[in-house]
Amino acid sequence: MYQFMPLLLAASAIANPLAKRVSGTSTVNLGNITGSIKHLASGFIYGIPDTPNQIPDHFYTDIGFNYGRAGGAQVAAPGLGWIWGLAEYKVRFASALSNYRTTRKYGGEFIFLIHDLWGADGTQNSSAPYPGDNGDWSSWDDYLTQWISDMNANDALEGLSVDIWNEPDLAYFWNAPQSQYLQMWGRTYHRLRKEWPEVKLTGPAFAGEPDASNSWWTNYLSFVEGNASIPDQWVWHMEGGGSDMETAYGNLYSLLQTYNLPLRPINIDEYATYAEQVPSGAVWWISQLERVDAIGLRGNWLSGTQLHDFMASLLGKPNATTSSYSATEGGYWPNGGYQVYKYYNLNQTGHRVGSSPSADLMLDTYATVGTDMVRVLTGVRIATGTWQITINDLSAVGLPTSGTLNIHTWGFPFTGGYFGEVDAPTDLGWYEHTYEGNSVTFPVYQTDTTTAYAFEFLLG
Ligand SMILES: *[C@@H]1O[C@H](CO)[C@@H](O)[C@H](O)[C@H]1NC(C)=O
Ligand SMILES: *[C@@H]1O[C@H](CO)[C@@H](O)[C@H](O)[C@H]1NC(C)=O
Ligand SMILES: *[C@@H]1O[C@H](CO)[C@@H](O)[C@H](O)[C@H]1NC(C)=O
Ligand SMILES: *[C@@H]1O[C@H](CO)[C@@H](O)[C@H](O)[C@H]1NC(C)=O
Ligand SMILES: *[C@@H]1O[C@H](CO)[C@@H](O)[C@H](O)[C@H]1NC(C)=O
After folding, report:
1. Residue 346: which of 36, 63, 57, 34 has the closest Cα?
2. Cα 457 to ligand 4 centre (Å)
3. pLDDT at 164 over 70
4. Which atom of ligand 5 is nearest to the CA of 32?
5. Domain 43-344 is of which CATH architecture?
6. Ligand 3 and 323: CB distance under 6 A
7. Does residue 354 have its Cβ closer than 6 Å to ligand 2?
8. 13-37+351-458: CATH topology
9. Which ligand lies nearest the alpha carbon of 294?
């Protein structure tokens, strides 16, 4: 469990040689207004049941769900996609269309995964075909003709983005030459752009982050520049468990300069490892994405019909973990991670203020200033230890530059794990902190790897 100490106790602990070493400080600057709240991290991939309304509305609206991404992957047979024939394509299309409609019901944007509808969802066999095999594009061209016609017929273009291929840099999704991928990109981009000028075409959705020594990135950027097929959003995934958003963004920025390409919105349309899909990790990712104004969708580490359930590991339901699991059963409850997204959406109102992660990049904070309170959500990247939070420029919210600050703390535990029920954060009470110099610092004792915390105080 996490503990709280008045400043006096914290000061005496510093003199104690047995006291825990502070690993670093995440800093919030209340005077640095970084824009209105956008809930940039409130999307997820798959996670929506194919039966409409199976998960009740409030589960979507309470977390401000705003971005979906699907294409009928891993639906129950017979639904293996285009490469198995039109009937199998139709099953996947129906699944994706249903997920599109659910996303639109809540005003969200939807990224259509046409590689999944084709059938390259990672379950395809080693002799499965890829677009343009042996220089023959006829099946891909026919596929796009069918899909374009079906999307038009179902009036499914509003709020639509297309990730032209998912993670082609992994043989799991693209087991053909890189040059063939680039040809596929160029053909598909120009065809869809001509067909639907308003639909966003996004990519490259690589598993690997921007990196000047990664030939998938360098060849792609060089190709789209010459081919006039620059994506409307720069998309990649952050699921390796290593790097951070400022590093990745910086690498993209310099690559774009090298290849003379424009900066466009960033979309990390799969973020967080499965281990990071816990309250602490969710907050760490929210903080990271918000800092660089990147859209983010939680990755999804479930498979089969569970891929189409549980809102990407934010919900549980009866029999979720037993052999009597049913894809179509209801009875949902929220888990600990869900409570983080709910607080992020419903409670962190007002405007955002700038923050920086601890120097070791392990503790991060996302802070907002509402009409009533300052709210600072904090999470570690799956570690235990002692960090601290410094909040600077208290006078920017009308507080005196020295005095006593009463801070209300909430804990967001991961009780019961991924399928555990957590109906609300835990009220950990109010603690007084004396401060001076227009700045307050308090410790975060992280004795488990998964709990996140929120700290709140009234404006002056
Ligand atoms: C492999 O998948 C393709 C469709 O992608 C199918 O036509 C073929 O029969 C499959 N081969 C085997 C050995 O299952
Ligand atoms: C882009 O690349 C595709 C695939 O090679 C090609 O068909 C198309 O003509 C190219 N377009 C331009 C504008 O270079
Ligand atoms: C859970 O599974 C058991 C059988 O193992 C079944 O009796 C029960 O009805 C299931 N509960 C729900 C809510 O589906
Ligand atoms: C968040 O806001 C909701 C709606 O105003 C409120 O009911 C709830 O108590 C708040 N939760 C916390 C943890 O402050
Ligand atoms: C304000 O915060 C943003 C986001 O954290 C940061 O990039 C920027 O450098 C900060 N500006 C100042 C003046 O501190």
Report:
1. 63
2. 14
3. yes
4. 1
5. Alpha-Beta Barrel (3.20)
6. no
7. no
8. Immunoglobulin-like (2.60.40)
9. 5
